[in-house]
Specification:
193 residues, alpha+beta, 4-stranded antiparallel β-sheet, two-stranded antiparallel ribbon, 6 helices, 29% helix, globular
Amino acid sequence: MVLDGLKDLYRSMKEKDLSRVRFQYVHGRVAFDVFFLIDETPFCLMFGAVNFNIAFEFAVKAGFVIDPRLPPEMYKALCRALGLQFDPNNPFSVKSFLGQFGQHIPKVAPATPIRPEDIAIYRRDVEECEKIYFLKWRDNSSMGKRVTLENLNKTRRILGDSIYQACMKRNISSCWTDDRSQRRDPPSLAIRN
């Protein structure tokens, strides 16, 4: 299925030099934090159900094409969150859900900054997933150590591919905390040639 609404949002993101945006979408009784991440290949459309322990993602391929299927357990969890009862004559359709969502995609990219914890609360498949607040960068070379694959994965899943690449190239680890009072905005890791 093609989500045409992403085209205008993508153009607006490029005009504003944004690689990640967040906006809300309400479906039935559930509000979703929606993230459109164009710094990943393929692009990613991520939904996080506010006040529910549910998050799911769709790969957005060239032409803004999305496969409108979810794994069975995620499908069931989404149906429970939406308060839907199974009806064999009228089953819930993820394609229909995405079709309705497509009518609510903003044409202009919201300029609200996305903090690491905004994504970390939904991407729980990383090391130390309870530590969602960015703390600091650690230069492993100065200590004679190597950045771990687990840390690089967390960096990529939460901060994006360009920061992941910089950390891998420069042997830098992202450090995280579960203490909100210690959170910091990640300083730039621009790679210099």
